[in-house]
Design goal:
Length: about 140
């Protein structure tokens, strides 16, 4: 059995629930034999960048780190029925992955490079271009 969990950072639904009920739910589900895939749900697609932190919060409350990583990679692919092409790095798969400078479940890690279907994708955007343009500007004293 699998579940797509999108409530890591939601408030508890009842005032009698403990503060950490949403944080620890993935661990409880995993211990019961349920595979947990993480999602940002209906809150906003722009929050997809925070998906690793949803999984990391569950790790802080008992979910094994390897299960959290699978919860943002392999398990969603399995639930969507595309795990023969995506979700893990194996021979014959599409080679959609990224390289980071640290543990992706750590907020301090930065994605440095990304490939989709084996083709490298530029991470350049308006914000990085503006940063590069203005990082050497003279500073007023």
């Amino acid at each position: 059995m699998s579940v797509i969990y999108d409530s890591t950072f939601s408030l508890p639904s009842r005032d009698t629930d403990s503060y950490d009920v949403q944080y620890s739910a993935p661990s409880v589900l995993q211990k019961a034999g349920v595979t947990v895939a993480f999602a940002v749900g209906s809150r906003s697609a722009s929050l997809a960048k925070n998906l690793p932190y949803e999984a990391a919060q569950a790790v802080a409350f008992g979910l094994p780190a390897e299960e959290a990583l699978k919860g943002i990679t392999l398990y969603p692919a399995q639930i969507a029925g595309v795990s023969e092409r995506l979700g893990s790095i194996e021979a014959g798969k599409e080679a959609t992955f990224f390289a980071a400078d640290g543990d992706i479940l750590d907020v301090r890690a930065n994605v440095k490079r990304m490939w989709i279907a084996g083709k490298e994708v530029s991470l350049d955007n308006r914000h990085t271009r503006l940063y590069e343009k203005y990082k050497s500007r003279p500073r007023a004293n």
